[in-house]
Each structure stands twice: as structure tokens, then as C-alpha cells.
Write a structure and sequence with these properties.
- By secondary structure, this protein is mainly alpha-helical.
- The chain has a domain of about 120 residues.
- The protein is built from 20 helices and no strands.
- α12 crosses α14 and α16 runs antiparallel to α17.
- It is elongated, with a radius of gyration of 27 Å.
- The N terminus and C terminus are likely disordered.
- Keywords: Signal.
- This is Chemotaxis protein.
- It comes from Methylobacterium tardum.
Length: about 425
């Protein structure tokens, strides 16, 4: 076989991999949303060493099998948190794609090369090589069906992809292709049949441990379990993710979704559910735990779950340095939750007025202004009502009693709840 450009590229890419493996966290994201060890803070559980895919029987240098294996090694470093690997991925994909498209026809007589090309396409390589292969005659099964199904999936023809791939038995496929197909099958079925998706994702995790495919399967399975409300396994796998892939490039996104899902469980209404939240977050270092409690508190406000917001804000505040920007955030979220309840309204309003807006982000300044204006509107509505002068709201009676004594049953409850609705709207508009 002729020497291709990818053959000349391999030494460079392998050099990058050698450097990354020798120092796996050298290029970890520095964002607060990703667990990165800071000075004086114990490092989170170390990233799992990349496990190369199981060699194919026909593997040899200069073949699609070798090229795709190199890509997968690079992607496994992405799961370990290497920004260098993440930045190099598009370049390597483009070069592999070009060489696959220019490979001579005899290359595709080897089914291992066909399988590697399908794996490549499902691993971010795109549809071009699949369009090429599906236009050829003489491709055997199951490769022909896999290529057509993968192409339909990548091009967004989900009904056709599901028809072609849902009954494919991955047991006889090499682990890397079986993992890629399993992830695709799970994606196609998770909405209508999350239980089947969970079974498929369990299979992927067992097939390709330590790889980006396992990391992706674990993330997806956690949220499929959340969709079903299976709290016990959700907790176990969330803890497993935080232990095994704390530095993944996708960890920040995972934590945002985790905060949303935990809020959907309404952890503030049930002691055991809040205990689940605490056990999951105890896997993180103090700063990362603080940041996630803050994210959960803000998300809870957005969802109108005041009990969850209060509990999460209190947990965050216990981890904040006094006067820090994070402490200011925690106080804001706690106060925003307090003003929707007349028994805590006055303390919430006072806390809002005492905040240093210079220490808040632009989005939180919007939240502060909205909470203040709404609280003051509620306060004006309470002025002059029996037992509820604006200056003495700390001794307010429960909301229902206030409404009844004023002769306007429950008129104040919608006003209080409107605070959450307005905050929800503003947060939605301010979200990037």
C-alpha cells in the first residue's frame, strides 16, 4: 500500500500522546466547573489511564485500523482532561478523513478496514467516508447495514437509523465498533425506551473501560436514570463518574446537567434525597463542592424549588471564605429564596439590600435587581395591613393567615411566587 499523509503524521501525533500520558493532567481545564487540584488542596481521584482499543487481527501500520486506533488514543486523553489532545483532534480527524477517502479500492476488501471506517465516522469523523462506502458494491454484512445505519444517524435521519441499527447484535463486533454502535443505539432509543438505553450503555461501559466511549456512556446513563427517577443507581454512577473522570473535558457540562437533575429530584423536600446530593458532592474537593452547591442553589431558584435552594445555599456558604465573591453568591441565592415566604421575607429583603454588587457577576446583578424590585413591590402591598407594617415584617404571620385577615384569600401567595417566575425568566434570558 502506498505511503499516505497520515503515515507521516503518526509520529507527531504519537509524540503528543507520549507527552500527554507522561503528564496526564498537565493541560487540565482551569475552569471552576472542572475538578482541578489547587495549591493546598488534595487532588481528586486521578484520571484512569487510557486503555488502548483491543488490536484488530489485521492491524498493521498504514491501514485504516491503525489510523483510527491513533484517533481513539487521542480521544481517551480528552476523557483524562488533556486540552492539547482536544485541540489536536480536529486536525487528526481531517487528515484521517482525507486518507480514507483517497484509499485504493483494495483497502475495502478487508472487513477490518470497513469496520474501522464505520467506527471513525461514529467517533466524530463525519459522514463523508460512509457515503463513499455505501455507494460501493460488494460490501458484506453486517458492515453494509452498519454503514447505512451510521450514515442515517449522522445525517439526522433517526427513524431510518433506528430501523437499521436497533436489532444489530454487537456481540460479534470488535469492542471499539461495538461501543460506538451501542452508544448510537442508546441515543436512538433513550427517549422512548430509557430502560433499554440503560442496558445498552451498561454494555458499552463494560466493553471499553477507561476510554472516551466509557466516559460518554457513563454520562448518558446517569441522566437516563434521572429520567426514570432511579435515585439509587443514579447516585452510584454519579459518584463513579466523579471518581473516574474528574478531569474530563466534558466534566463541566456534566456538572451543570447534574445540578439540574438533582434539582428536578427536589432534594429540599426529602431528607434522604438531600443526603444523596451530599454523598455525591462529597466526592469533590471543597472548592469544587462549593461551586456545585452554588450552581444547584441557583438552578433551584430557577425551577421555583425554594427549599432546595435554601439547603444548597447553606451548604455552599459553609464552604465560602467570608466576604468572598462566592459568599456573596450564596447570600444572594439564599435571600432570593427567602423573599417568597412571608415568614422569612424581611430577613431576605435585608440580606438583598446588604449585598456588595461589585462582587457579583453580571448575571447575578440582574438577579439581585429583580429580587429587590419584586421584594419591594411585595413590601408595598403589605403596608398598612393589620399586624404587617412594612418596617415590622420580621414578625409576620403565615401567608395564609395574612391573606385571610385582609379579606383577600391567598392574594399574597401569587405575588410571592411571581418572584420565582420572574427570576426564572431572567436567568433563562441571561444564560449563555
Amino acid at each position: 500500500m502506498r505511503v499516505t499523509r497520515i503515515g507521516r503524521t503518526l509520529p507527531v501525533v504519537l509524540g503528543l500522546l507520549t507527552t500527554a500520558i507522561a503528564n496526564p493532567v498537565a493541560a487540565e481545564p482551569a475552569s471552576a466547573s472542572v475538578a482541578v487540584a489547587r495549591p493546598g488542596q488534595p487532588a481528586p481521584s486521578g484520571p484512569v489511564p487510557a486503555v488502548p482499543p483491543v488490536p484488530e487481527p489485521s492491524a498493521r501500520k498504514g491501514t485504516p485500523v491503525e489510523w483510527v486506533r491513533t484517533l481513539q488514543l487521542l480521544q481517551d486523553r480528552v476523557a483524562a482532561g488533556s486540552l492539547a489532545a482536544h485541540a489536536s483532534q480536529p486536525v487528526l480527524i481531517a487528515r484521517i478523513n482525507a486518507d480514507l477517502l483517497s484509499a485504493p479500492p483494495e483497502v475495502w476488501a478487508d472487513r477490518h478496514n470497513l469496520r474501522s471506517a464505520i467506527t471513525f465516522a461514529l467517533s466524530g469523523g463525519g459522514p463523508a467516508i460512509l457515503r463513499n462506502l455505501t455507494a460501493r458494491d460488494g460490501i458484506g454484512e453486517p458492515e453494509a447495514t452498519l454503514a447505512r445505519g451510521a450514515l442515517a444517524y449522522i445525517e439526522g435521519r433517526e427513524a431510518e437509523a433506528n430501523r437499521l441499527l436497533r436489532d444489530v447484535d454487537t456481540a460479534d463486533l470488535p469492542p471499539t465498533l461495538a461501543g460506538a454502535v451501542g452508544l448510537t443505539q442508546a441515543s436512538l432509543t433513550v427517549t422512548e425506551n430509557p430502560n433499554r438505553a440503560i442496558i445498552l450503555l451498561d454494555g458499552v461501559r463494560l466493553l471499553v473501560p477507561g476510554t472516551l466511549a466509557e466516559e460518554g456512556a457513563l454520562r448518558r446513563e446517569i441522566f437516563a436514570l434521572g429520567q426514570l427517577g432511579e435515585l439509587k443507581k443514579f447516585e452510584a454512577l454519579a459518584i463513579q463518574y466523579l471518581r473516574r473522570f474528574p478531569h474530563s473535558i466534558y466534566a463541566g457540562n456534566f456538572r451543570q446537567r447534574l445540578a439540574y437533575q438533582l434539582t428536578q429530584f427536589d432534594v429540599g423536600q426529602d431528607e434522604e434525597r438531600f443526603a444523596v446530593l451530599n454523598r455525591i458532592l462529597n466526592e469533590l474537593g471543597p472548592e469544587s463542592r462549593r461551586d456545585l452547591y452554588l450552581l444547584i442553589a441557583r438552578t433551584a431558584i430557577q425551577q421555583g424549588k425554594t427549599a432546595s435552594a435554601l439547603l444548597a445555599a447553606d451548604k455552599a456558604l459553609a464552604l465560602c471564605a467570608p466576604g468572598s465573591p462566592e459568599a456573596m453568591q450564596g447570600r444572594l441565592y439564599r435571600a432570593a429564596a427567602e423573599i417568597v415566604n412571608l415568614t422569612t421575607f424581611q430577613s431576605g429583603l435585608q440580606a438583598l439590600r446588604s449585598l456588595d454588587r461589585a462582587k457579583l457577576t453580571a448575571r447575578d446583578v440582574i438577579l439581585l435587581d429583580t429580587a429587590l424590585s419584586t421584594a419591594e413591590e411585595i413590601g408595598r402591598g403589605l403596608t398598612g395591613r393589620p399586624g404587617l407594617p412594612e418596617a415590622n415584617l420580621a414578625t409576620a404571620k403565615p401567608a395564609q393567615a395574612v391573606a385571610e385577615s385582609a379579606g383577600e384569600p391567598a392574594s399574597l401567595i401569587p405575588k410571592a411566587q411571581a418572584t420565582i417566575d420572574r427570576i426564572d425568566l431572567l436567568l433563562s434570558k441571561a444564560s449563555p
